[in-house]
Amino acid sequence: MRDKLNDISRRNRSIRLLKIYNKWSFDLTELDILSTNADEKISESIVKKIIMRSKGEITLLKPTMNNEDSMVLSKKLTDLSRNMKAIEEESGIHDFYLGYPFISGSLSDGTFFQAPLFLYPIRLEKSKVNTQKWIVKVEDGGPQINRTLFLAFKKMNNVEFTEAFFEEAAETAKKYDMDVWNAFFEKHEMNFSFSRNGLTKLKEYKRDEIPELFETTILEHAIIGNFPQGSSSLVKDYDALIELSKEAPLSLVGELVGENEFEATDETEDKDKPIQEEPDLLNLLDMDGSQEEILKEARYKKGIVVHGPPGTGKSQVIVNLVTDALSRNKKVLVVCQKRAA
């Protein structure tokens, strides 16, 4: 059920990143233009610190007015930071990671993919102590393999991945060693081609330039940005519930998330079931006949789905369901994707 919350489509940046847009991602190799030592790349130093989980702040950029390049890069990071904050405030989702390294190739249906192999959770901030600078902080939780990409492999290539695979991959990602990574994938019968060239800029494609690749290749790209690991903020709730279920039964919630079998009531039985005399419906908002029918059925059915195009009154139905339930001293749990709702 958790994996069904993932968006397995070409539009998902966690499966196919064709172009860098400032509000969604930032290529760390862009920082190398500011390197004072040609032999030392700023980008490689940052990647190593994030993977090794350096404590405290990791400095990305110190923009200065007399360096135009640094101001341009700072503007890109500003656009990215603002968008990430807006998404988190609206939905509660913070899918912000360092994606490194990248992997490219084609799925069995010919779909080209170019996506991060491992994801390292980070937070982008602008520090205002003394001089302004852009920093990243390594988030708790540790790295993970790009689960969304591997769910695409599972769906399109008919390859199975166990939870043990994902857990072992997360441990492997903690090591800054390409040989260890290759050994892990060879162990699981996945052979990727790779040549060491150091960090390189992500190759961008227009839609009519997408290549036809059949060999899967590991690429040394390092991108910080939004790489969705679920189309809903419920994903993190599922993860928390799964952990809690290991300690104690979750009662109704456990039934809903699959801890126990959920037995839906047969609809024909529901229709024939005599309805006991109950108080009249209490609706806060006006409703039509179809909406009234929903409120009546919700009183005795174990499960009901309401659907319809925009503007047909689904939100009003929710308000009236809550109002009617509260009027009968019922407890109500309302779950939705967006905080504003």
Your description of this structure?
The chain has 341 residues and is of the alpha+beta class. Helix content is 33%, strand content 14%. The strands form 2 sheets. Strands 1, 2, 3, 6, 7, 8 and 10 form a 7-stranded antiparallel beta sheet that branches. A 3-stranded antiparallel beta sheet has the order 5-4-9, with no helix packed on it. Strand 6 and strand 7 form a beta hairpin. Helix 9 crosses helix 10. The longest helix is centred in the first third of the chain and has 24 residues. The radius of gyration is 25 Å and the shape is globular. The two termini are 23 Å apart. 23% of the residues are buried.
Layout of helices and strands:
Blueprint: E1 25-27, H1 42-51, E2 57-61, H2 68-91, E3 96-99, E4 102-106, E5 112-116, E6 118-127, E7 133-138, E8 144-145, H3 147-157, H4 163-172, H5 178-187, E9 217-219, E10 223-226, H6 234-245, H7 251-256, H8 267-272, H9 289-298, H10 314-327
Antiparallel strand pairs: 1-10, 2-7, 3-6, 3-10, 4-5, 4-9, 6-7, 6-8
Short description:
By secondary structure, this protein is of the alpha+beta class. The protein contains 10 helices and 10 strands. Helix 9 crosses helix 10.
Radius of gyration: 25 Å
How large is the share of residues in beta strands? Answer: 5-15%
Principal-axes shape call: globular
Query: Termini separation (Å)?
Result: 23 Å
Total of DSSP H or I helical runs spanning 4+ residues: 10
Mean pLDDT: 84
Please bin the fraction of helical residues: 25-40%
> Low-confidence spans: pLDDT under 50, at least 5 residues?
none
What profile does the largest beta sheet have?
A: 7 strands, antiparallel
> How many β strands by DSSP?
10
> Could you spell the SSE succession in H and E letters?
EHEHEEEEEEHHHEEHHHHH
Q: Helix- and strand-based class?
A: alpha+beta
